[in-house]
Amino acid sequence: MVLSLVAKKPSYGYEIIKDIQEASNGLYVPSPGVIYPTLTLLEEQGFLESQIVERNRKSFSITPEGAEHLAQNKETETVIARKLAKARELQQGSNLSEDIEMAVSRFKALLRHKMVLKQLNEEQTHQIATIINDAVKQIEEVNAILTDSHDE
């Protein structure tokens, strides 16, 4: 799947994590501890190449050998695509609690990506903390309204 995603467009590791999350409708969010070693392995096998771009981040692109390997394993790619389509189908009947769970999942994935957090300056860190605290307050307010109306 990683090769398939990179074949569509050169990507950073974090973009690949987001692409997999989106492709699975949030059912699977690979951690950086899964993606980065996979990228390194694929690069060592000659299937990917990387180049350092902005902020010392590596952008990965597929090599001719990687494209050939992907073509030889088209059946595997098709099976994965079918499974992801089935996952999206199952999510179509989602209810609101599943929407909340997906949002929390996306939030956790963002926080797990320590590289992003390490690049924040003090002002950005403060802004994000404020956003999170405001969201918590808003959720508490909604919950209080629901609890009050439920008690009546």
Q: Strand order, main sheet: write it out.
A: 1-2
Please give the radius of gyration in angstroms: 20 Å
> How many structural domains in the coordinates?
2
Identify the overall geometry: flat
Major β-sheet annotation: 2 strands, antiparallel
Q: Which band does the percent of strand residues land in?
A: 5-15%
Highest CATH level, the class of the largest domain? Mainly Alpha
CATH architecture of the largest domain: Orthogonal Bundle
**Mean pLDDT, as a whole number?**
83
The CATH topology of the largest domain turns out to be Arc Repressor Mutant, subunit A
**How widely separated are the two ends?**
52 Å
With helices defined by DSSP (H or I, 4 residues minimum), what is the helix count? 8
Q: What would you call the quaternary organization?
A: single chain
Contiguous runs where pLDDT drops below 50 for at least 5 residues: none
Looking at this structure, what is the CATH superfamily of the largest domain? Winged helix-like DNA-binding domain superfamily/Winged helix DNA-binding domain
The structural class is mainly alpha
Q: Secondary-structure element order, as H and E?
A: HHHEEHHHHH
Helical content band:
over 70%
The number of distinct β-strands equals 2
Pfam family, one: PadR
InterPro entries: Tscrpt_reg_PadR_N (IPR005149), WH-like_DNA-bd_sf (IPR036388), WH_DNA-bd_sf (IPR036390)
Protein name: Transcription regulator PadR N-terminal domain-containing protein
Domain Transcription regulator PadR N-terminal: 2-71
